[in-house]
Design goal:
By secondary structure, the protein is of the alpha+beta class. The protein is built from 26 helices and 8 strands. The strands form 3 sheets. Strands 6-7-5-8 form a 4-stranded antiparallel beta sheet. A hairpin with a 2-residue loop joins β3 and β4. α20 packs across α22 and α24 packs antiparallel against α26. The longest helix is centred in the last third of the chain and has 20 residues. The two termini are 56 Å apart.
């Protein structure tokens, strides 16, 4: 059923979230992606005019097609196809599509109680008291002054509206987008830090936020903007957005702005590397260069891995993109088993086609035994095509020792993400043939076979984090779901692949719940880096628990909502136990 869509448009969209954009004259370029997404939405919603889905403002029921799951998904995809740089934020068509999506949140309430409470809430907003309250909200969000926010957030009407949200949650409406949107707006309106209301600061910093997000802006300008933007208040705002959007399945494209390692803003490190990689044409060289650039410096490495993990955790990151990001997290920074050299550096010449080079007039094929391949030089001449010479065997052995486990690691890495697997495979086939062929012709134990891929799980360590929410008993009652969500949170915070976390346990303590987990890594240095990251983000109170708190926030058994305090994690307890695999 549809719950009074007219009221929804009048109140929730126009009043509570209307401050996000205003009508204007800006021209918004329609790209091919937008056009394709619009066509898809029109088909899914059964209309050639998506604006016709907007529910009327005279309390009559609007189009029922907008409540179809396929229509909702298509509208979300359409809005995501618009640029995130703000260039379309004032476009009237874009705003109409946003309004349709906001209307869709009121579709399909979980039960009749949700409908009744929500209608009661909407009718309250139409009362004289409710209209006064809404005027106060509008005034605060227009003036963006602390006095205006103090006035509305200490008024009885704010408590009244909050009570409606609490009633919705108590009646198992926590998964309903209408409830989630209402709770988010309430939290955004009155979240504060040291008596400063954060929403006012956030919107007063809009220009700085846009500069910080602009990858084309000067690095110095972005650094200045980020230094202005990245405050405790911004972290609180993003925490509310992060939990809400995770629950709603919406991408949060600002949540990675203030990710830092040491004193470095990670978004700048990632954008600088991507600018370098963009100048390269060959796909395999792009991958290898990205790995080298990321992993050459410990700070840059941890920064970029956290940015990758953030993208992985976003609701609309595709399965194929997640697979690619996971490969980067696992493979890009692996090192040789004995020399500790970075695999991406050791294999650079291989990736550039060293073992495909051929003398003039020849073409090098992987199984060539007739002088058609230039490298290794000792294998150029084959007096006997059926026998690997001592010189060739020695040359192959040298390559095998130099590349070690990196050969198979980089081969597996590139093969997993390549869009041209045949081209990628060809880079490795010559040395694969030579190593096996030379070994096959020896009677003694052969040393020319490449080692298996380098391990990214040589060592494990137990770490612990103490959290306020969810409470211990809720975790016990929802152990499987919490474990899965919390591992996602750990992966995002540490820049580590999900698959490397295990053995999550919980115990109740005075300050909350201590969550203990095992994490695997390729080396002691890697373990120390991860420990340092957790220590840093917990000390700065920027540990993000968006997945597990989104789960908790939607549960009617939750005694309170946690959006405003969920960033406050007490400590990280580092275990001294090591286990070697």
């Amino acid at each position: 059923m549809i719950v009074s869509p007219a009221c929804v448009v009048l109140v929730v969209v126009v009043v509570l979230v209307g401050f996000f954009a205003e009508d204007g004259e800006a021209v918004c370029a329609i790209t091919t992606d937008i056009a394709a997404a619009r066509s898809n939405a029109e088909n899914a919603c059964g209309t050639s005019d998506l604006t016709s889905l907007i529910t009327p403002t005279d309390f009559n029921v609007g189009s029922t097609s907008m409540c179809l799951n396929s229509c909702s998904a298509a509208m979300s995809k359409l809005l995501r196809s618009y640029p995130s740089d703000g260039s379309c934020d004032d476009d009237t068509t874009y705003l109409a599509y946003r309004r349709v999506q906001n209307d869709q949140r009121e579709c399909n309430p979980p039960n009749q109680a949700c409908s009744s409470i929500y209608l009661e809430y909407l009718f309250y907003l139409q009362s004289p008291e409710g209209q006064t309250c809404l005027a106060g909200v509008n005034n605060a969000r227009a003036l963006l002054t602390q006095d205006a926010y103090t006035s509305i957030c200490t008024d009885d009407c704010y408590a009244t509206i909050t009570s409606f949200a609490d009633q919705l949650l108590s009646e198992s409406c926590g998964t309903w987008p209408a409830y989630l949107a209402l709770r988010k707006d309430l939290d955004l309106l009155c979240v504060s830090n040291n008596d400063v209301y954060c929403e006012a600061e956030y919107f007063n910093n809009t220009d700085a936020i846009n500069v910080a997000k602009n990858s084309s802006a000067l690095s110095s300008a972005r650094t200045t903007a980020l230094s202005t933007v990245c405050t405790t208040c911004f972290n609180l705002i993003q925490n509310i957005y992060g939990i809400s959007k995770q629950a709603l399945g919406i991408e949060n494209n600002e949540g990675n702005l203030c990710i830092k390692h040491d004193s470095s803003f990670c978004i700048l490190a990632l954008d600088e590397i991507e600018a370098t990689v963009a100048t390269i044409v060959d796909e395999d060289e792009k991958v290898n260069t990205r790995s080298r650039e990321v992993c050459a410096d410990a700070t840059v490495k941890r920064c970029v891995q956290r940015m990758w993990s953030y993208e992985y955790a976003q609701p609309f990151t595709t399965t194929s993109r997640k697979s690619r990001l996971n490969s980067y997290l696992l493979y890009s920074c692996l090192r040789h088993q004995t020399s500790d050299n970075l695999c991406a550096s050791l294999t650079q010449s291989l990736i550039e086609g060293l073992y495909l080079d051929a003398p003039n007039g020849f073409t090098c094929t992987p199984t060539d035994v007739s002088n058609g391949c230039s490298n290794p030089p000792s294998c150029l001449s084959w007096d006997n095509p059926s026998q690997c010479s001592f010189g060739c065997s020695s040359g192959v052995n040298e390559v095998v020792q130099t590349l070690g486990c990196c050969f198979n690691s980089v081969n597996n890495f590139h093969s997993a993400i390549s869009s041209t697997p045949a081209v990628t495979s060809e880079l490795f086939e010559r040395m694969q043939f030579l190593s096996t062929s030379c070994c096959a012709r020896q009677h003694s134990d052969c040393s020319e076979l490449f080692a298996p891929q380098c391990s990214f799980q040589k060592q494990t360590q137990q770490l612990s984090v103490t959290i306020f929410d969810p409470p211990y008993q809720w975790i016990v009652n929802n152990e499987e779901a919490f474990t899965d969500a919390f591992i996602s949170d750990l992966a995002f915070n540490t820049g580590h692949a999900r698959s490397l976390f295990s053995s999550v346990n919980y115990r109740e303590v005075t300050l909350g719940v201590t969550v203990t987990f095992s994490i695997a890594a390729a080396s002691n240095t890697e373990i120390n880096d991860i420990e340092a990251v957790l220590t840093d983000i917990t000390s700065r109170r920027t540990f993000r628990q968006w997945n597990s708190l989104a789960l908790y926030a939607q549960d009617s058994s939750a005694a309170h909502h946690i959006a405003c305090v969920s960033f406050m994690f007490i400590s990280i307890l580092i275990s001294s136990l090591f286990a070697f695999l």
